[in-house]
Amino acid sequence: MNAVQWNDQTPIFRQLKEKVIELIMDGEVIEGEAVPSVRQVAADYQINPLTVSKAYQELVDDEVLEKKRGLGMFVTEGAKEKLYAEERRIFLQQEWPRIIKRIQRLGINMDELTSEINQSTEQSTGDR
Question: Suppose 23 and one of 18, 29, 47, 83 were both cysteines; which one would form an S-S bond, judging by CB atoms 3.0 to 4.6 Å apart?
């Protein structure tokens, strides 16, 4: 895991959980692979091991991670697709309606929006 800047607005265990989710969705940690131990993450980020345990437990409860006694925590099979489905659902039901309202409030028309999307797409594919 890479260096993390913790934000004071959200509990650290939630931020850590989101970081693990991002790593899985980005393919940096793959299904069947072990995640770093609670002790290792706590030492790397200088946070309480209970904080790490809480984040990992939520991921176990969400069936994204599984405990293998004596071996550690592993990403479950199908975790990536499950996470994509949940992230899509959250985006479409919670974030997208707010974005649409903001677009309308700012008076941005579809042509402007399409142009910006195309420019962003060209820039991001040109960076690769």
Answer: 29
Domain residue extents for the chain: 12-77, 80-126
Exposed/middle/buried for 31, CB within 10 Å: 0-12, 13-18, 19+?
middle
Fold for 12-77, please state it.
Answer: Arc Repressor Mutant, subunit A (1.10.10)
User: Which tens digit of pLDDT belongs to each residue from 54-96?
Assistant: 999 999 999 999 999 999 999 999 999 999 999 999 999 999 9
End-to-end C-alpha distance for the chain, whole angstroms? 22
Could you give the CA distance from residue 3 to residue 15 in angstroms, rounded to a whole number? 12
DSSP 35-50: PPPHHHHHHHHT--HH
The C-alpha atoms of residue 31 and residue 79 are separated, in whole angstroms, by 7
Q: How many CA atoms lie within 13 A of 103 on its CB side?
A: 14
Number of helical H runs and strand E runs in the chain: 6, 2
State the average pLDDT for the chain. Answer: 92
**What are the φ and ψ backbone dihedral angles of 34, each rounded to 5 degrees?**
-75, 145
